[in-house]
Write a structure and sequence with these properties.
single chain; mainly alpha; 3-stranded antiparallel beta sheet
Amino acid sequence: MNAVARLPIRRAAPRWARGFTLIEIMVVVVIIAVLAALIVPNVIGRAEDARVAKAQADIRTLESALAMYRLDNGHYPSTDQGLEALVKKPSGDPPAPNWKEGGYIAALPDDPWGHAYQYMCPGQHGPFDIWSKGPSGVTGAKDNITSWQQSKKL
């Protein structure tokens, strides 16, 4: 008998089973980096736009609730009664004899920057004014979102 040792035959793995070369991986990383450089600036700028849109929607909701309050009671809540009159029956003057049980909205929202919406009745720009102090948190700043500016755009 021949004493030739038989070594197992090693076959080359198919191309799809070998993995990726360093150059292939680098090409993919460069493509992802280019896509990120194009997309990320557009997405980051949208966060502030979304906050402004939410504040505008909140103000429209508060305006609608105030309209319902006025239909039931014949007047808007006073500045002292504030927007809280939409959630719980106000005390003081003027009275709200036909205040709707359950309120006109479930809860008062804060603006997207964590501030309470501001309310004044009578308003300087209409029967009432509602505004958000915006990102600065300062009333009267250019970044305020207001009910009177919205009505001009509509």
